[in-house]
């Protein structure tokens, strides 16, 4: 059995704000949250090879909408200083929770205003979880299993000749629900569970703090499996939304409805939890992390004259966007006209890996990742909303169709244009190139 052991440990910290603040995710929220419907958490998972000789890699997953780029730079530096591990060995993932705090000021205030006191708390709890995980590593067995869930639906549909955010049951989506388990080899007790599934965590728009359906599910699992640690890895959810529909249009849920969606996903997950999949054969494998970047060009760029005219707008959102973009335009090294997409490949077993992308990635890219992995005999799970955020990454056909993901969302992400259709070929090539390095 020693051939199937990995040295790992996890630590969980609650990251619920200590006082009300603005939630990130919906421009319709204009005041601090009313109360805490569900506490939110982060979990740090430290992984190293069977002999624990190589420096560990650390995956940090949280009930957040994203890890803003402006936060990750100083946080990585702090973790490097406190642990001695190089900053690049820390990998960050978010559930894309639309009912939690903002993590930076990179985007317009209408979808989230960062609170300095909260950011300090978040960084402190992250550091504490990382330290605990690094000191608690022990040999564990790894297993992997998959089933399906039908709580999501493709969210781009034509209504009156216009592409809208609307349910579209004619377009297939990735319904696979994956479970990675780390189990004590002696007692059989579950130490760590990692769930992978693709569906926007935006079931509820209540002005109440929660982790939406991923957080509610994780809270339930922690209660049912005392002492275990849980992570939810968001799949390619950019064009997938929970199937909350009235007539032929989407609606929003209250907290109880959101918990019902979490329970439905939990029912599918129970099939996996009650199964006994074979252990992943790690042989003498050492987990490894590969990184790369992709330049994503923007088109239809706003002009300096347009921005200067908007600075004094009576619309606070328009004026804020103008000031941000003028500052970017005037900066010598701003990268005006493009954004850099960070991607990372975290291989945790000889035939199992996570592909992290710093964007709200639409489902077709997840298909590219899975197919490229399958050609090499690998199961590779796409994980969006990781390692930062550059906005929605749509396909060339979606860009041509228009709609929220490729066009309207650019405003909220303070982009000076919309992504050019050439991004699909660039991202696809970068995905294949990184996987070929394994």
Q: What value does the Rg take, in angstroms?
A: 21 Å
Distance between the termini: 25 Å
By secondary-structure content and strand pairing, the structural class works out as alpha+beta
Determine the mean pLDDT: 95
Strand line-up across the major sheet: 5-4-3-1-7-10-11-12
Beta-strand percentage?
25-35%
**pLDDT below 50 for ≥5 consecutive residues: which ranges?**
none
Q: Care to count the β-strands?
A: 22
Give a nutshell description of this structure:
The chain is an alpha+beta fold and 438 residues long. It is built from ten helices and 22 strands. The protein is 30% helix and 29% strand.
Q: How would you describe this protein?
A:
The model has no long low-confidence stretch (mean pLDDT 95). It is built from ten helices and 22 strands. It is of the alpha+beta class. It is 30% helix and 29% strand. A hairpin with an 8-residue loop joins strand 3 (41-48) and strand 4. It has two domains: 2-273, no CATH class; 288-436, no CATH class. The strands form six sheets. It has an eight-stranded mixed beta sheet with strand order 5-4-3-1-7-10-11-12, sandwiched between helices. Helix 1 runs parallel beside helix 2.
């Amino acid at each position: 059995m020693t051939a199937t052991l990995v040295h790992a440990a996890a630590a969980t910290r609650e990251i619920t704000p200590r006082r009300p603040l603005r939630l990130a995710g919906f421009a319709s929220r204009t005041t601090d949250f009313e109360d805490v419907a569900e506490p939110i958490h982060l979990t740090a998972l430290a992984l190293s090879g069977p002999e624990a000789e190589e420096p560990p890699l650390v995956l940090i997953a949280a009930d957040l909408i994203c890890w803003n780029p402006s936060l990750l730079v100083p946080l990585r530096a702090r973790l490097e200083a406190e642990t001695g591990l190089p900053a690049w060995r820390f990998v960050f993932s978010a559930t894309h929770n639309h009912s939690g705090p903002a993590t930076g000021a990179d985007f317009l205030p209408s979808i989230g205003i960062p609170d300095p006191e909260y950011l300090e708390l978040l960084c402190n709890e992250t550091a504490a979880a990382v330290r605990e995980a690094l000191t608690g590593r022990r040999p564990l067995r790894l297993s992997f299993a998959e089933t399906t869930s039908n709580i999501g639906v493709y969210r781009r549909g034509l209504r009156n000749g216009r592409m809208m955010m609307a349910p579209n049951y004619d377009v297939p989506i990735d319904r696979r629900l994956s479970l990675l388990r780390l189990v004590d080899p002696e007692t059989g007790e579950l130490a760590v569970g990692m769930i992978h599934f693709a569906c926007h965590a935006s079931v509820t728009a209540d002005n109440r703090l929660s982790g939406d359906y991923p957080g509610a599910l994780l809270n339930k699992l922690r209660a049912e499996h005392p002492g275990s640690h849980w992570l939810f890895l968001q799949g390619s959810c950019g064009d997938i939304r929970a199937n909350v529909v009235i007539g032929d249009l989407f609606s929003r849920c209250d907290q109880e409805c959101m918990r019902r969606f979490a329970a439905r996903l939990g029912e599918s997950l129970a099939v996996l939890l009650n199964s006994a999949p074979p252990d992943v054969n790690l042989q003498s494998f050492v987990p490894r992390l590969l990184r790369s970047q992709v330049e994503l060009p923007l088109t239809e760029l706003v002009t300096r004259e347009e921005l200067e005219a908007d600075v004094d707008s009576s619309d606070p959102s328009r004026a804020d966007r103008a000031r941000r973009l003028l500052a970017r335009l005037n900066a010598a090294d701003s990268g005006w006209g493009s954004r850099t997409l960070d991607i990372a490949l975290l291989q945790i077993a000889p035939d199992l890996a996570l592909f992290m992308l710093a964007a709200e990635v639409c489902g077709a890219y997840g298909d590219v990742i899975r197919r490229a992995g399958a050609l090499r005999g690998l199961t590779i799970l796409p994980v969006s909303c990781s390692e930062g955020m550059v906005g929605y990454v749509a396909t060339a056909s979606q860009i041509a169709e228009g709609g929220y993901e490729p066009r309207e969302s650019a405003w909220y992400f303070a982009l000076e244009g919309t992504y050019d259709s050439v991004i699909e070929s660039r991202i696809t090539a970068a995905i294949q190139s990184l996987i070929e390095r394994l």
